[in-house]
Amino acid sequence: MNVRDDRREAAIEKMADHLLKEGLPGASLRALAAAAGASDRMLLYYFADKDELMAATLERVALRQSAVLDAAIQPGVRLPGPSLLKAVWGAMASSDLQPFMHLWLDLAAGAGRGVEPHRTIAGRIVDAFLQWTQSRLEPEPGSDPAAQAGALLATFEGLLLLAAVGRRDVAEAAVEALGEG
Amino acid sequence: MNVRDDRREAAIEKMADHLLKEGLPGASLRALAAAAGASDRMLLYYFADKDELMAATLERVALRQSAVLDAAIQPGVRLPGPSLLKAVWGAMASSDLQPFMHLWLDLAAGAGRGVEPHRTIAGRIVDAFLQWTQSRLEPEPGSDPAAQAGALLATFEGLLLLAAVGRRDVAEAAVEALGEG
DNA sequence: AGGAGTCTGTAGCGCTTGCTACACGGAAAC
DNA sequence: GTTTCCGTGTAGCAAGCGCTACAGACTCCT
Question: Is the pLDDT of residue B66 over 70?
Fold first, then answer.
């Protein structure tokens, strides 16, 4: 029945595509509207304001990404740290790492300065990822599993950052080195 | 003799301060000019355009930061991985980590999308940091020292990112965990 | 048939952005 | 003493931003 909600939903999907392709800097209302096949006027009819629109769209992107990870390493499976890192890195790499990486850095940069809705959403994403990591990690006995998951997550995020600034080769070599040690 | 170069130099210092305080999003010509005690008109007299201005200012920030690191761990000293990580993290934390962290994430985000001058400068910074890490790292025998340095750098960058998105506690715990393992 | 509420296009407001045109005072060179 | 260049203020341009006012079309209820 509700036409508006349907179109809103469709817009979210198309805007998520656009966001992944262009990143936050390319996410003006007019550009997003063009991507969604609508007018900026209509976007602001579907959503209260840009913040609400961005929150919904970023949430959608996060959902997609967590689906990629779940598909790569299914619930119930547990791996030791180095293997898990390698597996996650491999999964991201084969699902076209780049777009998500760029968007995530944009988001993190905004979050760092406390910008909303970036701060809230980035927090949620990193918490979810942390929990996911802990649920997939075969913990080494004798130290805190949460801290181990945190360390693994940090390393992965750092690899992402290295790749983003054009040092993907360094990141690849690091993954290998960590796999041996 | 050269009045212009003197003022240009002074402007760089003050703009570096401003950049650390406000990050890239707060770096409009008018805002930078106010911080430097000049007019935007004059900034564009000292520098060809905003790109040149930003390149000079970001370079200055990087210079300051590497001075902090050199002071914390002097040339010639070598530490094993976990200790080095702890030392670097401690040095950054005690020198007011926050401003540099934010700026670095802004820069990395821009670099990821290929924006100039961010891409070039971020590349230079990460290369310098990589080299610095390798020069301070007591390498474990049997695997590539460069890759070990890369892995350590990745972890550190990831910790920075975790702290930026408001999970500094997770980062601290991870540093501890890595210190034990 | 008429009024009410739901959609949507047009047009534009007020603001910020990087950058520029122009004019003018002073100092230096000849 | 004139010319030439350096340094600087004023004022403004074109483009982009998020957002809104307004009006018309369409659908539904009575």
Answer: yes
